[in-house]
Design a protein that fits this description.
Blueprint: H1 3-11, E1 29-37, H2 44-50, H3 55-60, E2 76-86, E3 90-98, H4 105-112, H5 119-124, E4 139-145, E5 160-164, H6 171-178, H7 182-188, E6 200-204, H8 210-220, E7 232-233, E8 235-236, H9 239-245, E9 256-260, E10 280-281, E11 289-292, H10 293-299, E12 308-312, E13 315-322, E14 325-332, H11 337-346
Parallel strand pairs: 1-5
Antiparallel strand pairs: 1-2, 2-3, 3-4, 5-6, 7-9, 8-10, 9-11, 12-13, 13-14
């Protein structure tokens, strides 16, 4: 983190009533979204550059975009980022922007970052005088605020979208877009003026489009916000262990479900891994945190339709809270296990915490 960025924290007092910042934090979360309004002449190459993401990553959360060469202006797309606790002061993400000739803080904030931040907010964390930003060979810290939820409001939501309000938008129009209730949206934005036409609000992830939900599922099978490290899948091959890892037709109480913690995945050989059980194969590591079927059922209200937040390629995804942590759990279709494993191997570089049942 640059020295000018750290300096800004000690002196910053935000007075704008239209820009909500969540003060004080102890930790962030691995995934949040920004709702990026696509302006004319912009394209995915540029959006990927300013968001420090790959085009493929952005497309994975925006399935309605037909191809990377075609993104419709005057629409919103989701850009993913980590929501970090910055110096214990607030939740946000710092994008790194390479300046262009003629750039101003206003242009960067309002146009290039589609009002996900403010010009004053960008200026706070950069040392350049607003009238003397270099034309080339300089990088700006562009700070965007985000949310990981508030357990005092509700424990049901853990994935949030930073959403810049636009002219002519109202609470009613946002409700219609998100499939959330007005009460839920207002509970996370109690001081927001939804008719102001500007400012940020935070929308729970249950309001994501089906395309974005599919992206969350496919990119990491399921999203779980930090269980003290990155948990990875362990897939057991013999019949006895299959009954303990995946949901089967056995009565409740006879099935178990495991996620694996610590080191990254390795390619399995026929002899397994050193230090790991010889019965493990596929994708695994040497430690595990186990969740019983009963615990998963309770956490998802018996896989209630009310907790369902999406449908992936090989099963439904349910919201849950596991041992004090917000989670999304994919209940896998047993008949698709072979295809599921193939998909899992392809996406296993995901930096999030994952659980399957």
């Amino acid at each position: 983190m640059s020295s000018q960025f750290k300096l800004g924290l000690g002196f910053w007092v935000l007075s704008s009533i239209c820009f909500t910042v969540q003060s004080k934090c102890s930790r962030g979360c691995d995934l949040a979204f920004g709702s990026y309004y696509v302006w004319p002449q912009s394209n995915l190459t540029f959006i990927a550059e300013v968001s420090n993401e790959s085009i493929n990553d952005i497309l994975s959360y925006n399935r309605e975009i037909p191809n990377q060469d075609s993104v419709q202006s005057y629409t919103r797309i989701y850009i993913p980022f980590s929501c970090d606790c910055i110096n214990g002061e607030f939740l946000g993400h710092v994008f790194r922007y390479n300046v262009r000739s003629g750039d101003t803080y206003i242009r960067v904030a309002e146009k290039y970052y589609a009002n996900l931040t403010m010009a004053d907010w960008v200026a706070r964390f950069n040392s350049y005088d607003p009238s003397r930003i270099p034309d080339t060979n300089a990088t700006l810290n562009v700070t965007v605020n985000c949310s990981c939820g508030d357990s005092r409001v509700s424990k049901e939501y853990g994935l949030f979208v930073t959403y810049p309000l636009r002219p002519n938008e109202t609470l009613e129009s946002i409700v219609a877009q998100t499939n959330l209730t007005a009460d839920v949206i207002m509970s996370y934005n109690p001081n927001s003026n939804f008719r102001a036409g500007s400012g940020l609000i935070y929308i729970p992830g249950k309001g994501l489009s089906t395309g974005a939900i599919a992206g969350v599922s496919v990119a990491c099978i399921v999203v779980v916000l930090s269980l003290g490290g990155c948990l990875y899948f362990g897939i057991y091959k013999n019949k006895k262990v299959q009954n303990t890892v995946m949901v089967s037709t056995a009565p409740v109480g006879q099935s178990r479900h495991a996620a694996h913690a610590s080191g990254g995945p390795e390619a399995a050989g026929s002899t397994g891994f050193a230090g790991a059980s010889p019965r493990l194969t596929g994708i695994t590591v040497d430690k595990s945190v186990e969740f019983s079927y009963e615990e998963l059922a309770k956490a998802t209200k018996d896989f209630s339709i009310a907790n369902k937040i999406g449908q992936g390629g090989f099963g439904a995804v349910y919201y849950a809270e596991l041992r004090g942590e917000k989670a999304a759990i994919k209940k896998m279709d047993m008949q698709a296990s072979r295809e599921f494993l193939a998909e899992l191997k392809e996406v296993f570089d995901c930096p999030l915490v994952c659980v399957v049942c």
